[in-house]
Amino acid sequence: MITGAEGGLNGRELSSRRAPGGGAAVRVRRRAPEKPDIVLPEVDVRLARDRAAWGRWAQAVRDASGLLLVVVLDLVVGSLAIAHALVVAGLLAGEAGFDPAAASLLLFLQPLALGLCGAYSSAAHRVPVGRLVGGTALTALLAWLYQRLPGTGPVIAGGAFLPAYAVGAAVLVPMGRLVFDPVIRFARRPRIRRVLAFGAPGHAAVVERLLVSRRGRDFRVVGRLAPAGVADDGAQGALAEVDRVLRETGAHGVAVPSTLPSEMLETAVRRCLDAGATVFVAPPVRLPRNSRLIVRETATGAVLEVQPRGARIPQFAIKRAMDVVLSLIALALLAPLMLLIAVAIKLDSPGPVLFKQVRAGLGGRPFGMLKFRTMVCGADDMKQELQHLNSSGDPRLFKIPRDPRVTRVGRLLRRTSLDELPQLFNVLRGEMSLVGPRPFFPEDLALYEPHHFERLTVLPGITGLWQVSGRSDVLDFEEVVRLDREYIRNWSLWLDLWILLRTVPAAFGRGAY
User: Fold this and answer.
1) Do residues 360 and 456 make contact, with C-beta atoms less than 8 angstroms apart?
2) In this structure, are residues 75 and 109 in contact, taking their beta carbons and an 8 Å threshold?
3) In Å, what is the CA distance from 480 to each residue of 64, 215, 231, 354?
4) Is residue 292, in this structure, part of any structural domain at all?
5) How far are the Cα atoms of 288, 334, 354, 420, 432 from residue 328, in angstroms, in the given order?
6) For the chain, which terminal residue's Cβ has fewer other Cβ atoms within 10 angstroms, N or C?
7) 0.85 cut: is pTM over it?
8) CB atoms within 10 A of CB 195
9) Is residue 93 predicted with pLDDT exceeding 60?
10) Same-domain pairing of 268 and 174
11) 435 CB contacts (<8 Å, ≥6 apart)?
């Protein structure tokens, strides 16, 4: 049995008597234990937990059915894109002999590619068009790569079919989502969780404000549950009556503030779980939306681990594969140009061709970033002397127009951003990505505010949203951080491809100082 409120000091009481010398002495003496004010009745734990398990299974089936419906609708639209590609390929190139296995291959790859691009991750909100277009493009790319695997044989004849499918699917799949939007929203509508707020009126009010302010309104507070021994006329019942209150209100769970005393919190959680109710513990601090909460088991109990939300493993693997493939292609195509640049640097000024600079990478770990040397030797030693020329006014963003340390060839390289080409080797080594926040200096981390560290949760990039949005014209460090955080929170493969396409005109149009 679990008793309610305890009196005195854990079953003890204070008394005073006169001490020698006229002072007052305080002593603590034990008293006979009182009868418990409230006794929490036992509940049928097995019946309550079976009822809760059945509810979870029903919700899982409902979620799977909604997802299956969306996948089927996408496959129907994908079939129309395949038919469109057949017609276009026949008209443009007169291609014939199409193997029916091609349709099966594309229809197999399409939901996988859309899933990797996040097209099935949102249950309550419309999926961005960029994810759908990126998924269809990835489908065509995977089919093209499959054809070139040794021993697979020709699956798709001709060269016009896949481009026609990619274009058709990029238009039809978003249009299909738009046409079937009412059906999809009905099938994948969020479950409204009816919950009880636990605690005294002050604690319960905090929980209610937190739940009703959540995006999507997926919680509905249907009553209040009072702690044992607390008189609350506005509550539907006390903790001892949780089983009855759950039945009468139809609540699915109980929301508990984590700021309660530890004993009261533990008692409430255990009792609600025994009654078959899901317990929602409101954190004492408001966690960022881009964070991820994980429960870790330890030898002495469970702890909550808060992680910055990054790319999921399949998406990260595709991003890494894209980095490696595109970097190898770029190095193969640009090797003659890089050789000419190396010769020009040696002829222009004494010193090495490449310049290695220590920068802060993923998690703030230092690494050597490679660049073509664009300044005279010993330029870093002159940085402190030229600090007064920094046009940004922020030591974390060191920019000097017409920097006297830059050589003649270096000025051309910086203007066209060709000095960044050796960073392709950093990408192959896994220290950088093609797209990501620009790496800054490790010594700048001491000047970071808490919200600045989010840019260290992903691999730094050769180019990024900052570069294509203004490059050297952006002189406010807070604006740079805002653009980096916007990229991290809205990351997708399609966004990476869009930034890469925008990088070339941005580099040659503005370049760096």
Assistant:
1) yes
2) no
3) 41, 28, 54, 27
4) no
5) 37, 10, 19, 15, 14
6) N
7) no
8) 26
9) no
10) no
11) 461, 462, 463, 464, 487, 495, 496, 499, 500
Tokens of 100: 């029916």
Whether 11 and 30 have beta carbons less than 8 Å apart is answered as yes
Report d(CA 192, CA 187) in Å as an integer.
14
Phi, psi of 481 (to 5 degrees): -65, -40
Same domain as 477, residue 333? yes
Domain, as residue range, for 239: 192-285
Q: Same domain, yes or no, for 208 and 173?
A: no
Q: For residue 285, give both structure tokens.
A: 């601090």
Determine phi and psi for 323, rounding to 5 degrees.
-60, -45
Residue 448 — very low, low, confident or very high, per pLDDT cuts 50/70/90? confident
Distance in angstroms (rounded) separating the CA atoms of residues 119 and 101: 25
Over the stretch 26-77, which tens digit does the pLDDT of each residue have?
A: 444 444 444 444 444 444 545 555 555 665 676 677 777 778 888 888 999 9
State the Cα torsion 112-113-116-120 to the nearest 10°. Answer: -70
Q: Which two tokens stand for residue 455?
A: 């840019």
Of how many residues is the chain composed?
Answer: 513
